[in-house]
Amino acid sequence: MSVFNREIVSLSTKVLENCRNHKWLLATAESCTGGLIGGALTEIAGSSDVFDRGFITYTNKAKHKVIGVEIDILRAHGAVSEEVARAMAAGALKTAAVQIAVAVTGIAGPGGGSDEKPVGRVHLAATNIDGKTVHRKMDYGDIGRSEVRMATVMTALEMLDEISS
C-alpha cells in the first residue's frame, strides 16, 4: 500500500518512464511541499535510475545558498513568486547537473497568507535541458495544509509529464 493516492502513483510512474526514455536524471527543489514530490517519485520501485536528488529549500537562505536563487530576486518578488519558482528550477537543474527539474514555492497555511498572496497560492516551475520551462500559478484556496501540499505534488507531476513527454 502506498502513502500516495493512485493518481499520484500513476503519474509518478509515467514521469519516471518518460525520463527513462530520454535517459534524463531528475531533481526537485521544494519549499512548501517539504520533499513530498521527491517522496512520490521515490515511492516507485526502481526510481533511482531517474531520480537523482531533492533539495528542500524551505527558507530564503536555503534557496540562495543551496540552489543559488539570487537574493535580489527574493527581495524584489518575495519567496512565493513566479520569478523565485523559475530561479529555483534553474538552480536545481544546474546544481544537480540533471536534465529536468521541478520547483515549488507557496503558502500551504494555515495562516501566513495576505491579500496579495493568499493561503493556497503556489508557484511551480519545471525546466529541462532542452530549454523548455513551464510555470503555473495555482490558487488552491484555504483547503487545509495537507490538501494544498498534495494538490501541489499532483500539479508538479503534471508539469514534469508535460515537459518530459
From TrEMBL:
* Residue ranges constituting the CinA C-terminal domain according to the UniProt record: 10-162
Name one matching Pfam family.
CinA
Q: Which InterPro entries does the entry link to?
A: CinA-like_C, CinA_C
Name under which the protein is recorded: CinA family protein
Record organism: Sneathiella marina
Q: What lineage does UniProt assign to this protein's organism?
A: Bacteria, Pseudomonadati, Pseudomonadota, Alphaproteobacteria, Sneathiellales
